[in-house]
Structures are given as C-alpha cells and as structure tokens.
Amino acid sequence: MSHFPWLRFAGAAITFTGFGYLLMKATVPTEEELYNRMAPDIRKKVDAARALRLAREAEMKQQFTVQAPPTTLVDPDTIKPIWADTNSKK
C-alpha cells in the first residue's frame, strides 16, 4: 500500500487556500470603494439604474399586496395542493 503524506498535503492545501483568501481580501475593492472611484457620468448611470430597480421592486411589492388575499380570510383548504386531498376516491 502506498504511503501518502496526508498531513503535509492537508497543511499545504490549507496554506494555499488561506494565502489566496488573504490576497483576495487585500486586492479586491469593496463596493463603496469601487463606487467612489467611478467617474461622475458612470455614477449617474449607476444611480439611475439603482433607482429604477428600487422602483420596480416597490411596484412589484405593491402589486403582490393588492393581489394576495389577507391571511385572516383565507380558507386553509383552498391553500392545500390537490395531491394532499384525503377525500379523493381511488
């Protein structure tokens, strides 16, 4: 049977993974740093896209609240899936 140095292999793998993670943390900017480095015209585009996304999310949430019935008035039997019906005849 082959004698493989598992402990040394595990130590090297953990070391390389830790080094990669630290290198990533040191070199990748945060979202705030990236936004601050942007040119003013690109910032305006990003802000417009963000505002549009938030408006769409608010509209979708409003539409959901209008279409969804209040939870106090919902009959529990209408929520159950058809396959969960115990009264079906086989």
Can you characterise this structure?
By secondary structure, this protein is mainly α. The chain is built from four helices and no strands. It has helices at residues 6-27, 31-37, 40-67, 76-79. The longest helix has 28 residues, at 40-67. The protein is flat.
Distance between the termini: 60 Å
**DSSP strand tally:** 0
Helix/strand-derived category reads: mainly alpha
Percentage of residues in DSSP E strands: under 5%
Mean pLDDT: 87
Largest sheet: none
Helix content: 55-70%
Separate helix tally: 4
What is the approximate shape?
A: flat
Instruction: Pick out the low-confidence regions.
Output: none
**In oligomeric terms, what are we looking at?**
single chain
Radius of gyration: 28 Å
Order of helices and strands: HHHH
Provide a short characterization of the protein structure:
68% of the residues lie in helices and 0% in strands. With 90 residues, it is an all-alpha fold.
List the helices and strands and how they pair.
Layout: H1 6-27, H2 31-37, H3 40-67, H4 76-79
Protein name: Cytochrome b mRNA-processing protein 4
Subcellular location: Mitochondrion inner membrane
Family: Belongs to the CBP4 family.
Key phrases:
single chain; 90 residues; mainly alpha; 4 helices; 68% helix; flat; Cbp4
